[in-house]
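Take a look at the protein record below and tell me what you see:
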Amino acid sequence: MKKIFLIISCGIISIFLASCATIMRDNYQAIPINANTEKVNIKITDKTGSTVFEGQTPTTITLKTSKSGYFNPQKYTITASKDGYKTQTTVIDWHVSGWYYVGNLVFGGLLGYLIIDPISGDMYYLDDQVQLNMAQD
């Protein structure tokens, strides 16, 4: 009897703690950044203006998809420059995962929609890649 109670209790707790985007996604994402010319200098800042990366293309960077907090997706700005080319600014924007919408219908329920996925930030993903098209001065 105790064993059955333990199994049922674990099952109920698992249902309440599960949410689909948190199960299926991670809070970090690798993003390749390329340009139409070699060795473009890039500086990446987050939505607070803090620099998170400085380097050159081509590169692949790993960025966090959300900041700490409730419903707080991350957004990044890339400033690209190279001698003889116009400085370019582009955004790495966030999107909401399909796992958040569809998966929580099956697995997470209201707890997944309103608490677990929004707090973990795993419901968000960023643009898959960045292609910089530098124009000459």
